[in-house]
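S.,

As promised, the beta-D-glucopyranose run. Input:
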Amino acid sequence: MNSKIALSKFSKIALIFIFIFLKTPDAFSQKNHSMAHENNAVESKIDSIISLLTLEEKVDMCHAQSKFSTKGVERLGIPEIWMSDGPHGVRAEISWDSWDFAGWTNDSITAFPALTCLAATFNPELSGAFGYSLGEEARYRKKDVLLGPGVNIYRTPLNGRNFEYMGEDPFLASKMVVPYIKGVQKNGVAACVKHYALNNQELWRNQVNVEVSDRALYEIYLPAFKAAVIDGGVWSLMGAYNKFRGQYCCHNELLLNKILKKDWGFDGVVVSDWSGAHNTYESAMFGLDIEMGTGTDGLGSTTANHYDHYYLATPFLKSLKAGDIDESVVNDKVRRILRLMYRTNMSSNRPLGRKNNQEHHDVARKVATEGIVLLKNKNNFFPIKDENITIAVIGENATRSMTAGGGSSELKPQFEISPLEGLKMRYKNATIVHSMGYATGPSAYDAVIPSKLDADSLRVEAIKVAKNADIVLFFGGLNKSHLQDCEGADREQFNLPFGQDELLNDILRVNKNVGYILVSGNAVEMPWLNSINGVIQTWYLGSMAGYAIADVISGDVNPSGKLPFSFPVKLQDNAAHSFGELSYPGKDYNQVYKEDILVGYRWHDTKKIAPLYAFGYGLSYTSFNITDIKVDKKAYTPQDKIKLTCQVTNTGDLEGAEVVQVYIGKQKSKVKRALKELKGFQKINLKSGGQKAVEITIDAANLAFYDESISDWNLEKGDYIIYVGNASNNIAETIKVNIK
Ligand code: BGC
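Predicted complex:
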């Protein structure tokens, strides 16, 4: 018998019938009823607007009129749509026709931490607060569409944009993206989940053609987008730059028409990435609704309005007039655009929005402190409690702005507290001496501008400062300039840039009491790891960076972040880099994801390649025990929920938070499978000595794999192993269950 879990068409209809006719009316169904009524009313208003629009007006709505806006229809009172980057804060105002800043003075905002940090909190509720606060700022800035969040999967540590995404695990990214989207959209601002799909490197992003199996596509690269659409109800989505199976993602028939719009029922707007559209027929027919950013200068080389020459502008109009493309095609796009407007700038009950307020700063600080990951803590090096000491703060990243650079996610914060400022405010009685140690030059897009400072004198000075200190805190890592965690290019090396390894070794010769604070959105090589006492991963933390770092270093906040991606020991230990050029970065702009479903910890686990730091790993200043791990049954049907319970005890002296992580694997399978995959997690806070019961529920159906032979999900019967722990490589106990 086929163990496929999908219900037959007949039984689905029967279930719907039973639901509709046998369920007694309650508040829930009344609410659904009134929502359906409202939706119908909106759809009929849209019908009547469409009937009033000329073909020219319809086409005008399908492409940009400036860098970040589309045209309205003045005679009918239909507004323009205003979009803005990005995932971590609302970008400064950009000029009408170029990428230059418009020079406004009222566009500074709260810079929230980068999404790697948000993912590291493993706290979906906090993700909701993040999205809500960011949405309020977007609303205040009069934006209708916020160009984020990004959920491309962390495939290689060289990807320059990993910091904008939510890590390597599709389950974690799915759980974190949904509340973020709902939070943004509560403000009448559309989130725009991006970059759909397979934009997992920046190198050659405009040309590379990605080939990946259906299995990896559905199991690894699509789930977070699917969750954004189905569970998050996202109102817009951005296509990726790259090609997938030979067709550009911004007009990819399979990704957009089939999977997104047909299978997932997406009723929102597909926006192209800026210059991601390449062809009129495909843009019209294969799912793109709004074309943005084509060409780099809005006025281009033509004297006429450049925007008229977009693929979805005059050429589209001509095809419609000639009858080569049916009018229903443009009507569908306009219907989606108007629907987005009724949800945003034509909504009658849109809140007002706020920015730079205390609540937003508090959310930014909470995300930052909860996302910081303590990686190493020999002899309780952290927290630093003694205040009457000399602290040498070495490294450019102690003072460098990390809201600058990075590309489209660059921000203009109202303020940004640097780590050095944060430490000085926190340790008022300590002597804090800063020395840059190395200098990298100003941040630029697509170019490296070397520093004019003398490298030797910086190094000599830093060693001197370190020698005379009780403690050395080295703030290094990457810095969001070209080739260092920035859009448009990948990193060129896995080890730390700018001679940091050498400098660290020189410092260790004069002072052994060193902690390294890694400011990055990516894993790096750590050849000096055994010689130093502590390592903290801090990400790009935004406005409140310095406060949050001082909170954790001082122990005012007990760290509870967990890595959302694996740190390999060396680059070749990462799956994408184990298969040569074709796998990364590709050959002649063609790329094959040869590691298939074995991305991140799935690869490390299955191939028994120990990572330097594992997915899900992160230390605390206290300790926890996970005990009494139980499931409610031994065997489950495909429709069942697996109810897992355990007790978590804080066995240390301080209050703290722990993340219980549940992974599940199938050992004997008819297909290749990862040893285990994350299927549930929960973060809980406990006082010293405190104990709490945790319950995690997992749909048995979620243990299915994507079966290419039937092009559907398939839940195999038989035994599965449940692994429960506080990191992918630290499992407290395993339990065997059966799916019957
Ligand atoms: C980026 C997008 C961004 C857009 C607009 C593109 O280059 O890939 O993420 O939203 O520019 O700035």
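The longest strand covers residues 641-650. The pocket of beta-D-glucopyranose is lined by residues 85-86, 147, 194, 273-274, 408 (CB under 6 Å).

- D.
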